[in-house]
Specification:
The chain has 459 residues and is α+β, with helices and mostly antiparallel strands. It has 3 domains: 121 residues, Immunoglobulin-like (Sandwich), CATH 2.60.40; 107 residues, no CATH class; 177 residues, no CATH class. Helices cover 37% and strands 22% of the residues. The protein is built from 12 helices and 17 strands. A hairpin with a 4-residue loop joins strand 7 and strand 8. The longest helix is centred in the middle third of the chain and has 23 residues. The protein is elongated and about 95 Å long. 27% of the residues are buried.
């Protein structure tokens, strides 16, 4: 058993940890861990050495106390010695309160119940609204590429770490088969245990678990949960230094007879490139070699291709506009000198600003594209749009994302901006996207192809 003294603590107050009934660990110096429960989390908070005497008891004092800055319950959770492979969970720990106004004889029980109720209120709320024709769903989304060592809880759902061997066994079998087919080895080159050891950190898996989602249809439940996961993964990419991606979505919908129907989808398996093969579909060996030479010769071209590789699979339309435009800004900034007056392909001045120069982003990108385009007039930049119009639309979408996170039709802050009407030309009356994003993507690809031809050194 274990307990803390005093039983009512405040931040910074010295505390003493007591361990008893550990006769089998007598004479050892172990590590004792404290955990806490507050209104947000239940987690570790402190580790300190403790010596177990000949009677199986140990006492240690932490002069600086704890510093959680919130009301909490604190208790001993385990004692351990990694060197001796000792780990013992403490289930009979008597907790203490921290920073609590409650001082009754049953303070710890009252505070614990109150804190757990607050956690339940925060994390137990389902996604969506009950009623109004909604149906109960539950959703699991598998995520690869994000390593978590403990669950991450969010209102209405959580992300659970999974064993990496679950997702990597198929790759092990494939590489063994490929090597055998090539005649390089008669047997397996990737055995089970070494493979799992490597996969544990190289190919982590998580599961985003939504126990209750109230939505009208499967599709609505999928959109709600995938949007939540996309945001969480963006945030965790900063916190964990790696970006996970959803690979499988499983949605169950409760039926009127209390049964369930399940639908599966593979968002991570959607192939966005050419389905055809050969020279005209991007499998040009000579051009590939030119791309390698140009990228090795010019770091700007290499960076632009790396940015393109990140932009193509991006799920968010707004983020894709931002990413593709950043590539054009990168290239134009490297190739076009500032301070040049920009005119349109037909010789007329820049509309609304006859003194517009390449020191500004949109005119500079326009000048970069017009100076390298094969078009003889201000057109061929998309259905019914001139190059000038497309540049203004793309830059407006970049501004909407860069300044407000995304384009929100009717948002009063965005409506007041000079670029808003241009941005709205990229969507229809219902706010659905038109074809400008695909034109922007192809413009970036063509611009990079021209860069390659000019810098590969193969001519």
């Amino acid at each position: 058993m274990a307990w803390l003294e005093p039983e009512i603590l405040t931040d910074g107050q010295p505390l003493t940890i007591h361990i008893a009934n550990c006769a089998d660990l007598s004479g050892r110096t172990l590590q004792v861990d404290l955990g806490y429960v507050d209104a947000v989390d239940s987690a570790w908070c402190l580790s300190t050495p403790i010596v177990i005497d000949g009677n199986g008891r140990g006492t240690t004092t932490v002069p600086s106390g704890l510093s959680l800055g919130t009301e909490a319950i604190v208790m001993v959770t385990q004692i351990k010695s990694p060197e001796e492979n000792i780990l013992r969970q403490i289930s009979s720990s008597r907790p203490a309160t921290l920073n609590s106004a409650i001082s009754s004889p049953k303070a710890s029980e009252e505070v614990l119940a109150e804190l757990l109720a607050k956690q339940g209120e925060m994390y137990g709320t389902p996604l969506g609204k009950v009623g109004a024709g909604t149906i109960e769903h539950r959703v699991v989304i598998l995520v690869e590429g994000l390593l978590l060592t403990q669950p991450a809880k969010l209102p209405g759902w959580s992300i659970q770490p999974l064993s990496p061997s679950l997702g990597m066994e198929e790759y092990r079998l494939i590489v063994n088969q490929v090597v055998r087919d090539l005649g390089w080895a008669p047997g397996d080159i990737a055995s089970v245990e070494p493979w799992r050891s490597q996969a544990s950190s190289a190919y982590p898996l998580c599961a985003a678990v939504f126990p209750a989602v109230w939505a009208v249809t499967y599709e609505d439940a999928g959109r709600m949960t995938e949007e939540s996961v996309r945001l969480a993964l963006a945030l965790l990419s900063a916190n964990r230094g790696a970006a996970g991606r959803p690979v499988v979505v499983a949605i169950q919908q409760r039926q009127s007879n209390d049964g369930v129907l399940t639908k599966l989808s593979l968002p991570g398996a959607q192939y966005l490139g050419n389905l055809a093969g050969g020279f005209i579909a991007g499998e040009d060996q000579r051009f590939l070699l030119d791309q390698v030479r140009a990228s090795e010769k010019d770091p700007i071209i290499r960076l632009a291709y790396e940015l393109l590789a990140e932009a193509i699979p991006e799920a968010s339309v707004d983020a894709r506009y931002f990413r593709y435009w950043s590539i054009l800004e990168l290239l134009s900034g490297a190739r076009i000198a500032p301070g040049q007056v920009v005119t349109l392909l037909n010789g007329s001045p820049w509309p609304g600003d006859p003194n517009a120069t390449t020191s500004a982003a949109a005119p500079r990108v326009y000048e970069y594209l017009r100076s390298s385009t094969t078009a003889s007039q201000d057109g061929a930049a998309g259905p019914g749009r001139s190059l000038y119009e497309q540049v203004r639309i793309w830059y407006a979408r970049r501004n909407a994302t860069g300044h407000y996170g995304r384009l929100v039709p009717g948002d009063s802050r965005q409506v007041s901006k000079g670029w808003y009407n241009w941005a709205m030309r990229s969507v229809d009356d219902r706010g659905e996207p038109l074809g400008q994003l695909s034109v922007l993507k192809e413009t970036v690809i063509r611009a990079l192809a021209r860069e390659v031809r000019a810098n590969s050194g193969s001519a």
